[in-house]
Write a structure and sequence with these properties.
alpha/beta, Rossmann fold, 2 domains, six-stranded parallel sheet, six-stranded mixed sheet, 10 helices, globular, disordered N terminus
């Protein structure tokens, strides 16, 4: 009887031990879910701008859903900025909500991210499209000029009037890179083609984008590359207004914008210069989750890394082949793309 009692006691202890391990595991998982939370702060556009901000948010959504997290505190979320004045307050709200990783979408958040990272060393920060100092900041830049070069090639091969346009958001180092690449790409095909360049000085004013595009179309421009975020939605609107009596095309940016150019069963989106914001946000949130956050490092994405590209879209096969030829030259280093307009000869 005593032996049986001892055996029973040992078994009971073993079962209790297993139960305690199970409880510990559940607590650990719960804690882990809280610790891997992440949120992003938009620039002037919203997460539905069909461009830059939306790309970032979709990347974070994919990450959150894959990890079975909920939208909100302890999971994944975003703070929308209606103006530059909202950047710091939005970041502070996310810090107070104890999000482990905070992602700033766009170069305009550079100062706000820099200051927040300095004052909150235990929080991971990501800055997309610019560089910020700090061992707890991962900076992501894109060689936009490479993708823009291909957009310029596509525009030059497509234009019938020998007049193409570029509508940018706010003049900046990033926009200068894009404009430089586009101009160089056009010139690589035909230096006699005129390039009309205008800036809306905003990434969230479709009405301004529409007015600028309408003026270009009235001046015989038949292909416009828009690199202006939400402002670019107005460029598509202007194109749809004239397409019935004037053959025009729009080149999208940041993501495949074929849908934005849809009219009837066709699309006036010639092609789109895509940018890997979605992929970079997903990758950095995953790195933080695995305790491999690349704080203090700068990651640069171009054609070679798949961070920039030009989609086939409505390009004819002859043009597509030319685009691919130039794409390969850039990747191999046989062709250098200017990073500033002032560098173009």
């Amino acid at each position: 009887m005593k032996i049986r009692q001892k055996i029973g006691a040992v078994i009971s202890l073993m079962v209790l031990g297993i139960s305690l391990v199970g409880c510990g595991s559940k607590t650990g998982n719960h804690s882990k879910k809280v610790n891997i939370s992440a949120a992003l702060v938009t620039d002037g556009g919203g997460v539905d701008d069909r461009s830059f901000n939306q790309n970032g948010w979709e990347g974070l959504e994919d990450w959150g859903q894959k990890n079975h997290l909920k939208k909100g505190i302890g999971g994944y979320n975003y703070a929308q900025s209606n103006s530059d004045a909202d950047f710091t307050s939005n970041i502070n709200k996310l810090i107070q909500a104890k999000y482990q990783t905070i992602i700033g979408i766009g170069y305009k958040l550079q100062t706000a991210i820099t200051n927040a990272a300095k004052n909150n060393p235990n929080t991971n920060f990501v800055l997309i499209d610019a560089v910020a100092p700090g061992k707890n900041v991962a900076s992501v830049t894109f060689r936009d000029n490479e993708g823009a070069f291909l957009a310029g090639v596509a525009a030059a091969k497509t234009t019938k009037t020998k007049r193409v346009g570029f509508i940018g958001g706010i003049r900046s180092e990033v926009m200068d890179r894009v404009e430089a690449g586009y101009r160089q790409g056009v010139a690589a095909i035909d230096k006699s083609i005129q390039v009309d360049v205008k800036y809306a000085e905003s990434f969230s004013k479709p009405d301004v984008g529409q007015a600028l595009a309408q003026a270009m179309f009235n001046n015989q421009v038949d292909v416009i590359f828009q690199g202006s975020g939400g402002t670019g939605n107005g460029v598509f609107s202007a194109a749809k207004n004239v397409i019935k009596h004037q053959k025009v095309w729009v080149i999208g940016s940041d993501r495949d914008q074929t849908a934005e150019g849809k009219y009837g069963n066709k699309s006036l989106t010639l092609t789109s210069c895509t940018k890997g914001v979605k992929k970079s946000v997903y990758n950095l949130a995953t790195a933080a989750q695995k305790n491999k956050f690349p704080g203090g490092k700068i990651t640069s994405y171009g054609l070679k890394e798949g961070g920039m590209d030009l989609i086939h879209g409505n390009l004819d096969e002859t043009t597509w082949k030319v685009v691919q030829d130039y794409r390969n030259k850039i990747i191999t280093g046989d062709l250098k793309v200017a990073q500033k307009v002032s560098q173009i000869k």
